Amino acid sequence: MMISVEEARARILAAFAATGGETVALSEAVGRVSAAPIVARLTQPPADVSAMDGYAVRAADGVAGARLRLIGSAPAGHPFAGEIGPGESVRIFTGSIVPAGGEAVLLQEDAAEAGGMVEVREAVRPGQHIRRQGQDFRAGDVVIPAAKRLTPRDIGLAAAANHPWLAVHRAPRVAILATGDEIALPGEPIPPGGIVSSNAHALAALVRQHGGVAVILPIAPDDAAAIAGAAAGVGGFDLLLTTGGASVGAHDLVQPALAACGMVVDFWRIAMRPGKPLMFGRLGATPVLGLPGNPVSAFICAVLFLLPALTRLRGLADAPLPRWTARSGTALRANDRRFDFLRARLEHRPDGLVASAFASQDSAVQSLLAQADALILRPPHAPALEAGGEVEIIRLDLAGV
Amino acid sequence: MMISVEEARARILAAFAATGGETVALSEAVGRVSAAPIVARLTQPPADVSAMDGYAVRAADGVAGARLRLIGSAPAGHPFAGEIGPGESVRIFTGSIVPAGGEAVLLQEDAAEAGGMVEVREAVRPGQHIRRQGQDFRAGDVVIPAAKRLTPRDIGLAAAANHPWLAVHRAPRVAILATGDEIALPGEPIPPGGIVSSNAHALAALVRQHGGVAVILPIAPDDAAAIAGAAAGVGGFDLLLTTGGASVGAHDLVQPALAACGMVVDFWRIAMRPGKPLMFGRLGATPVLGLPGNPVSAFICAVLFLLPALTRLRGLADAPLPRWTARSGTALRANDRRFDFLRARLEHRPDGLVASAFASQDSAVQSLLAQADALILRPPHAPALEAGGEVEIIRLDLAGV
């Protein structure tokens, strides 16, 4: 029984929860996901500070023509300890704490300083050019919520809030097992009739780009004992990803080999193209996602099912890959009962996006997968569409894949 | 004399060229930029292979009702060495090499096997279910061009093309120097009237997210000798980034201190808000970008000027940050002669994007910078705009910042 793409995604997601917390240095936290709200440890600005270079004055003294005695200077980091009395002023700079008694900042270009006196050339408005204590945040404020992917801007904000360390979700650990007598590592001797193993490397790169730690296990030959041996060490991982052998043909050994180790299969056939033989199960506490052996099928299944699992593991809120609307550059046939994901090139035309499916949708052609900007979504039983008709797409070019 | 944002960007870009090459393991190459075309070292598929599980047959034998002798089996990785003669067939699987004489693959569901014989239940079309040798790529084909940011899909393709190592551009090395008597590292004692240094950490995270190596130099106090000392070691870097002290006030020591070391200043004032005091120059062979001290100003200048420099250094083609069209959620005042970059929140409404500028555009408010989804672009002398009017924006949420 084939299940739908949506049901497969829901059943896969249900098997994952956010990883626990880890303490990392601020400088290592970009791209990680906050495991707790980040609370300001101080108030910013710590006191009323000047927003400009000029002179701190009492409001009543800031009238055009007034001449004020200059009683000191307060460079940033060197506050003036005294108080500004009537008829007095203090030289001040951007970021300097406004001395006691200071009620406005007279811009330096609106003043003339000579002989220890400052002449006011433009009247001041009370409070002008003063940034108030705590206008950015106050000690105890949540400046960054939990479950947020930390941007460079967040790192700056966490620094300003005085955090040298941050609590983030532990990076998900994904074990990747490629199987098959016919595959070899790049640069190593290729067996007769064999090909170079590429799935594990593409998937490891995908996992790393999306916040996970990828461990590529040694290639397992088509041998149940070897597959079982590789699977024996997956207890410390958040996910075991296999590629190849997930179907139930005579040489598809992954399911029976893992079943013999105790794997419980949830489902293994899904109504999509490419990618029908997608297996999902659980081996002890570790979810197992069995991807097809075809590189294109494996990768598209990873985009649709592995990325949501990683999102949840990393501690982020579930969010399906955003869908965009485009016009189809070609006519499309009516679809059968399988959800079709067509590799396509995007053009940005003045009147909108145009997505043109490649003529070859063969799931073995990796070169076209690498060139694709988008996947055109063709749901089950979608009617035929003329060129120019509207389609939904997933933008691979924006998805970090 | 203030220069325009566009002129500043052009003058900054002119100072940078792509870094040289570096050899990295395939598994380390995701996100890096190819320094040379990646050429296939083999042909894929290496021979005609089966696209399905079934039986390889001669085309003339593939007629409904024919009974063919099963002379062998060819699992993937175990090619059948003989030749298929008239009236013969070989069991075959997805990815198996089609034996000599095989001209089509009869699907297993269209066949009945018993007693060493295979009965054809559906006529075959010559060539059906055979993937031709080289249909993906041939040895010598360029599968990935130079100057491409390598995606997980490219890593898979490079693996399939048999590359254990790749030539990529060296990651740009950026030294970051924060200056000021008033700043302290997060978690360390804060001087009286001081604040926590956040710019260097935000900038380092930005550099790392965009393919660079960031080195945060020790904070330099407001002291010309200390700044000169920090600058003495920048010869090995592709860029020296400073924050704070870039203007020419009494306490703005960065320009004079670096000038005393031989820095040639290109410009130091730019008609934009936030961020007017932006300095650009060259110290020996190393470009120097002097960002403002205000965290918001510093970061927006980094988005506008540092990212394009990193793009060029990494070996990518120049491309300005993509601009999007949105409707303004608020009325906007007519602009003066400075290019204004308004921090804004985005809403995705059914009829399009709405960008609403925050009420406070104070360049010292980091919490709002971190919450901003977009920058609304207000070119010099832009006329007043009513709420709902069209604006151009830069999407911070999509820019990895």
Outline:
Chain A is an alpha/beta fold and 401 residues long.
Helix-strand blueprint:
Two copies of one chain form a homodimer.
Chain A: H1 5-13, E1 21-25, E2 38-39, E3 49-50, E4 54-57, E5 67-74, E6 88-92, E7 104-107, E8 111-114, E9 117-120, E10 130-131, E11 142-144, H2 152-160, E12 165-169, E13 173-178, E14 183-184, E15 195-196, H3 199-209, E16 213-216, H4 224-231, E17 239-243, H5 254-260, E18 264-267, E19 272-273, E20 279-283, E21 286-291, H6 295-314, E22 323-328, E23 339-349, E24 352-357, H7 366-371, E25 374-378, E26 390-395
Parallel strand pairs in A: 5-6, 13-16, 13-17, 14-15, 17-21, 19-23, 22-24
Antiparallel strand pairs in A: 1-12, 2-11, 3-10, 4-6, 4-7, 5-9, 8-9, 18-20, 20-21, 22-26, 23-24, 23-25, 25-26
Helix pairs in contact in A: 1-6, 3-6, 4-5
Dominant shape of chain A: elongated
CATH topology of the largest domain in chain A: Molybdenum Cofactor Biosythetic Enzyme, Chain A
Rg of chain A, alpha carbons:
31 Å
Tell me the helix content of chain A: 10-25%
**Low-confidence spans of chain A:** none
Q: Biggest sheet of chain A: strands, sense, closure?
A: 6 strands, mixed
Oligomer state equals homodimer
Q: Distance N terminus to C terminus of chain A?
A: 30 Å
Total helical segments of chain A: 7
What percentage of amino acids of chain A are in beta strands? 25-35%
- Count of the domains of chain A: 4
Using CB atoms under 8 Å apart, which protein chain pair has the greatest interface?
A-B, 92 and 92 residues
Q: Per CATH, which architecture of the largest domain in chain A?
A: 3-Layer(aba) Sandwich
Q: Summarize model confidence as the mean pLDDT of chain A.
A: 93
Helix/strand/pairing category of chain A: alpha/beta
> How would you name the CATH homologous superfamily of the largest domain in chain A?
MoaB/Mog-like domain
